[in-house]
């Protein structure tokens, strides 16, 4: 008799609160707004199908974001320079969290500090707030003048940001890494050492496009963050490297559009995946990935999806 | 939001460089407000280009809808070249459309270039609701005008061309004449330069009531997820796809 595959994963097994997901599929920060548009179009049952919800990046103060143009379509991908448009942490706690508390699906709040201290302060403000299940530290946004990737490109600053957050909250702290460094493994190890519950890899890859007719960069800040299928091999390689170097769970992110993409990341060692840009091209992308994983497990006779995590990695040396 | 493979029924020229394409797609054709839009994938594999393109509804009736679009890039060129029977992935209807008054009123519709497209569905719904409609179209030349036969016959259609090859010469906003005083409500869609000129003209004439306008911005997603289509208004930043595409002219220009 066929059994329903168990898709659940624990993203914070060593943490006192834990972070148990019914399946390993969640949106990437900044591609899901605050979750309410998805609920509007796909209903509460749509939210219930997801392993977790990840919010857009929240900053200490509200931000209007960058001027136009903010996006440029590129082959198999897009460049974005949104600039962390958001309502600010106070409105997040006051207006958004009570709505998230209605959902069974855990909500991970992506926090983007300008400074190390802001990561600690925002972690403190979100601690114990009903509706918030975990934090994801955004030390990897390429589209702001301060904080973001500036912190995430330094091993020392990444460690300090992690430590500041972990010391100020009982919530599991996930750290989202930038790929725009020589050695992402060193960043991951430093964040693990400071108490990160999990690592998310990767944020967008720094890129650029030029409008030949105008003889100017397409984006006003010239550089933007490249996402979409174009970056999947880069993301997969980094996940593979990081998962081999840390004991905490890794969340794979970068170019995942289908359940087979998701399986690649799980087999590389990711415990969960984030679907981002694919949602823009296919509003059902997240749901398609969940359903595809269920179907694949059933067809392959995989009873627990956790059993395939890291299965493509070389066997450990005894 | 409905997602459906809309099937192309017919594509015919609207004017030089622009086309009208009819689709069979029941779920995308029902309950459409004038000014709402639909996201249409303009590649077979949906990988290059990856994102759907946003088109305002030109018509929606029964189980069919139509788009009127200028060929401006790869996506619109591909769409214009597909034969009848081609399925095209699309999702919609999306966004907030025009609000028509409850009581029969005098409505002035002003379109610049391909911005005329959503005003045609607006006119059909307005006429059906008993409104009096004047539709003004500004275009480069006589070769770039929507044919008069596309409008309900109750509509008074006024054309203005930049080269004077049809109607008065110049920009449509310079030829509002007595229509602006006649109109209880004004609705407009066109390029930002037209909106700015319209705002300046109406303010100069002392009009307090803001026209409703439909704006355009790059929309990768179309449903409020990506924040790519920000519009900066007097009341703060808004998303064209989710908070619009209907805005008050005087809030933006």
Automatic annotation (TrEMBL), chain B:
Keyword set includes Metal-binding: yes
Residue ranges of every copy of the FAD-binding FR-type domain listed in the record: 1-100
Keywords: 2Fe-2S, Electron transport, FAD, Flavoprotein, Iron, Iron-sulfur, Metal-binding, Transport
InterPro entries: Cyt_c3_hydrogenase_gsu, Dihydroorotate_DH_ele_sf, Dihydroorotate_DH_Fe-S-bd, FAD-bd_FR_type, FNR_nucleotide-bd, OxRdtase_FAD/NAD-bd, PyrK_electron_transfer, Riboflavin_synthase-like_b-brl
Top-level lineage group: Bacteria
Obligatory cofactor(s): [2Fe-2S] cluster
Membership in a protein family: Belongs to the PyrK family.
Protein name, per record: FAD-binding FR-type domain-containing protein
Organism, scientific name: Tepidiforma flava
């Amino acid at each position: 008799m066929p059994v329903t595959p168990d898709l659940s994963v624990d993203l914070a097994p060593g943490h006192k609160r834990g972070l148990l997901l019914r399946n390993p599929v969640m949106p990437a920060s900044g591609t899901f707004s605050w979750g309410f548009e998805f609920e509007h179009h796909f209903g509460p049952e749509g939210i219930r199908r997801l392993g977790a919800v990840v919010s857009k990046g929240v900053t200490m103060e509200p931000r209007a974001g960058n001027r136009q143009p903010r996006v440029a379509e590129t082959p198999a991908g897009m460049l974005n320079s949104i600039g962390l448009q958001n309502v600010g942490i106070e409105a997040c706690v006051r207006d958004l969290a009570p709505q998230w508390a209605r959902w069974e699906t855990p909500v991970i709040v992506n926090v983007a500090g300008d400074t190390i201290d802001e990561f600690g302060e925002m972690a403190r403000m979100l601690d114990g707030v009903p509706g918030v299940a975990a934090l994801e530290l955004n030390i990897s946004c390429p589209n702001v003048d301060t904080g973001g990737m500036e912190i995430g490109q330094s091993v020392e600053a990444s460690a300090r940001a992690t430590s500041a957050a972990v010391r100020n909250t009982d919530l599991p702290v996930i750290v989202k890494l930038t790929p725009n460094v020589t050695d992402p493994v060193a960043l991951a190890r430093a964040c693990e050492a400071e108490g990160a519950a999990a690592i998310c890899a990767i944020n967008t890859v720094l890129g650029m496009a030029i409008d030949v007719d105008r003889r100017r960069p397409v984006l006003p800040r010239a550089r933007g963050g490249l996402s979409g299928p174009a970056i999947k091999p880069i993301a997969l390689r980094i996940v593979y490297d990081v998962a081999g170097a840390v004991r905490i769970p890794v969340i794979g992110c970068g170019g995942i559009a289908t359940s087979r993409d998701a399986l690649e990341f799980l087999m590389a060692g990711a415990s969960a995946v984030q679907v981002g840009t694919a949602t823009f091209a296919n509003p059902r992308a997240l749901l398609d990935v969940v359903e595809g994983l269920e179907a694949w497990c059933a067809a392959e006779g995989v009873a627990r999806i956790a059993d395939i995590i890291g299965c493509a990695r070389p066997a450990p040396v005894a | 939001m409905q997602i459906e493979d809309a099937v192309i029924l017919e594509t015919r020229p609207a004017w030089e460089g622009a086309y009208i394409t009819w689709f069979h797609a029941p779920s995308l054709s029902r309950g459409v407000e004038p000014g709402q839009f639909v996201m249409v994938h303009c590649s077979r594999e949906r990988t290059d280009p990856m994102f759907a393109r946003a088109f305002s509804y030109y018509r929606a009736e029964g189980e069919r809808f139509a788009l009127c679009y200028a060929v401006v890039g790869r996506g619109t060129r591909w769409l214009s070249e597909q034969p009848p029977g081609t399925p095209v992935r699309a999702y919609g209807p999306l966004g907030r459309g025009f609000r028509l008054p409850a009581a029969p009123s005098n409505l002035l519709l002003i379109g610049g270039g391909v911005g005329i497209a959503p005003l045609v569905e607006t006119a059909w719904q307005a006429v059906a609701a008993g409104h009096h409609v004047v539709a003004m179209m500004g275009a480069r030349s006589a070769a770039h005008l929507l044919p008069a036969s596309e409008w309900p016959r109750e509509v008074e259609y006024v054309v203005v061309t930049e080269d004077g090859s049809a109607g008065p010469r110049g920009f449509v906003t310079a030829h509002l004449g007595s229509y602006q005083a006649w109109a209880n409500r004004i609705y407009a869609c066109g390029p930002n330069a037209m909106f700015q000129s319209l705002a300046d003209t109406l303010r100069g004439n002392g009009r307090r009531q803001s026209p409703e306008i439909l704006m355009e911005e790059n929309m990768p997603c179309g449903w409020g997820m990506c924040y790519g289509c920000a519009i900066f208004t007097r009341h703060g930043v808004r998303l064209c796809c989710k908070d619009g595409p209907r805005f008050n002219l005087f809030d933006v220009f």
